Amino acid sequence: MKFHPPLIGVTTSIQNKTNDYCLRHEYITAIRLAGGLPMLIPPGEPNLNSILEWVDGILFSGGGDLDPATYNGAEHPEIYNVNKERDRFELSLAKLALETDIPILGICRGLEILVVASGGKLVPHLPDEFGEKIIHRQAQSCPAEHKVQIIPGTHLANIMGVEETKVVSWHHQAASNIPKGWRLAAKAADGVIEALEHQNHPWAFAIQWHPEISLNDARQQRIFRTFIHTAEQRQMMLSQKAS
């Protein structure tokens, strides 16, 4: 039986001024290097079940902030690029995906989507609560680098093979709590939640930093390789059951 490369659905953003669907190229490169076949999923698709029937894995990508109303949060002047259509679509897709066994990877905003979809809340603006001991972004359009501590004994620690690593960081929000069903997998020195992994789902990880920008780092590549490998194994299992 011949199998195609695992088909990975990747969410996209919407440019509010032009209505163009957008995605940074690093996500596509990371998936391809790991052996996956990327498929872009723009907001607004009404049949979410069809998406999950076609793809072998879901990657919730980065982008603008979530509407504070989605987590009963307060407005903040630093909140930017809110798109309610994208919020509705991705939150619905995340809730549905978490009820299946499909491999899930959330990156930056993707972590925040998975947190809110699981009943968690967000910190509206990190400097207000955590100060600037650790710079999580230089400016709205400029990433930063800092170290994170990987929690020993977690699946993420097993994947990356280290307990500390330098990451590319590009966010001003983060999870304010660990929602039900998840556990802490990594944190920054200032206490900001940097990664979560699901305790019940077969393979669901939420990463606050941007591993797709660090493709020269073998430790970051392992996140994508494991994601794609898990999607491939699931694809093969479902094909065997159907035959």
UniProtKB/TrEMBL annotation:
InterPro entries documented for this protein: Class_I_gatase-like, Peptidase_C26, PuuD-like
Superkingdom of source: Bacteria
GO molecular function, one term: hydrolase activity
Pfam families: Peptidase_C26
TM regions (residue ranges): none
Keywords from the named record: Hydrolase
Annotated protein name in UniProt: Gamma-glutamyl-gamma-aminobutyrate hydrolase family protein
Annotated source species: Floridaenema aerugineum BLCC-F46
